[in-house]
Write a structure and sequence with these properties.
Layout lengths: L1 H11 L4 H5 L60 E8 L5 E7 L2 E6 L2 E6 L8 E4 L6 E9 L2 E6 L7 E5 L5 E6 L2 E8 L7 H11 L1
Antiparallel strand pairs: 1-2, 1-10, 2-3, 3-4, 5-6, 6-7, 7-8, 8-9, 9-10
């Protein structure tokens, strides 16, 4: 039950939207593109699972993990790719970048990288930290009826889900008991002051 207790502690912790809103969004325009998955590049099975680096921070976004692969999505996998911002829900203001290829999904928040094969196994799931100040987590990932599901410790309890809205324009993200609605950002939001500052700093 250790994995479930750890997840519950994370999901029930207090959140502060102002903290999320103060963080820069991805500053690389390529992060907002959805390249055609035409089978070119490297098969995802040949790309080692990525993860959060020791010097990771919420202010600096990690490079894309699956940029070298254009493997088509596995059968039954919806296209969840993109940069998504929560506009309604407990995690309002938070942003996540989702990459996909084959049966692989990588979810990145700043320097926090959760990379996984969605085959239902712990071996190929997330083996990382739960947050920048979080404890180690092991999570099995699967895709079931178009819903991305995460099970801490590989147990039966589904702690996190992601799916597209019926019209495909929004990401519906259940994080523990909290439901969040996300809109896709299509370009670097230069009207967001922390992001604009990060872009200007990178250009110096």
């Amino acid at each position: 039950m250790g994995a479930i207790r750890t997840a519950a502690k994370t999901f029930l912790s207090k959140t502060d939207p102002s903290v999320y809103l103060a963080l820069p969004r991805p500053i690389d325009p390529a992060d907002y593109e959805l390249p055609e998955l035409d089978g070119s590049g490297v098969p995802v099975a040949e790309i080692p699972l990525d993860g959060t680096k020791d010097d990771a921070s919420p202010e600096v976004w990690a490079p894309r993990s699956l940029a070298a692969s254009r493997e088509p999505l596995a059968p039954g996998f919806p296209d969840l790719r993109g940069v998504w911002e929560v506009y309604e829900g407990r995690m309002t203001g938070s942003v996540q970048r989702i990459e996909q290829a084959g049966n692989r999904i990588t979810i990145t928040v700043g320097g926090l990288v959760h990379d996984m094969f969605c085959d239902g196994t712990l071996e190929n799931g997330v083996d990382d930290i739960g947050g920048f100040s979080g404890s180690r987590i092991r999570v099995a990932a699967s895709m079931e009826d178009g819903v991305h599901k995460l099970r801490p410790g590989g147990k039966k309890v589904v702690a996190v889900t992601r799916r597209l809205s019926d019209d495909g324009t929004e990401l519906l993200w259940r994080y523990g008991p909290g439901k969040n609605r996300c809109r896709r950002l299509t370009e670097v939001p230069m009207d967001h002051a922390p992001t604009r500052a990060a872009v200007e700093a990178a250009q110096r």
